[in-house]
Input
Amino acid sequence: MKIVVIQGPNLNMLGVREQNIYGPMKLEDIHAQMKAFAEQNKLEIEFFQSNLEGEIVDRIQECIGDADGIIINPAAYTHTSIAIRDALAAVKIPTIEVHLSNIHAREEFRHNSLTAPVCAGQIVGMGPFGYHLAMVGMTQILNEVAA
Ligand code: DQA
Output
């Protein structure tokens, strides 16, 4: 079973950008923890980060026949991208959306997610631990698929 982790714009800046909101942890450190969890649970995992909407759409499309589950933080595109939502709907692969911050407690323009309605679930406001929760949730979903 393979999970593809897709990280949207500016998440490559974690550890540098707005530490009061996103904390000090770097993306590579979050990914190292996810990789360790994947290895313990005998899952394959691959990471992809892009600042470009079209590249994210391409990577989602490439998940057909490649990934059993997707964990995605579409970052700012969460609130604007019909294209990313449509790509997730098209591939029909179980997807969990993660946000480090609690988007519902922030500016109004962050309250709505265009992508969450085509996901199995959404985890917000738990910081980097949210990615661990997503791994646990995805493991459960993949076990159900395999059963
Ligand atoms: C974010 C929340 C988005 O509103 C924001 O644009 C981000 C990060 C989060 O993980 O909290 O870039 O997705």
Residues 10, 73, 75-76, 78, 99-101, 103, 110 surround DQA (CB under 6 Å). DSSP finds five helices and five strands in the chain. The mean pLDDT is 97.
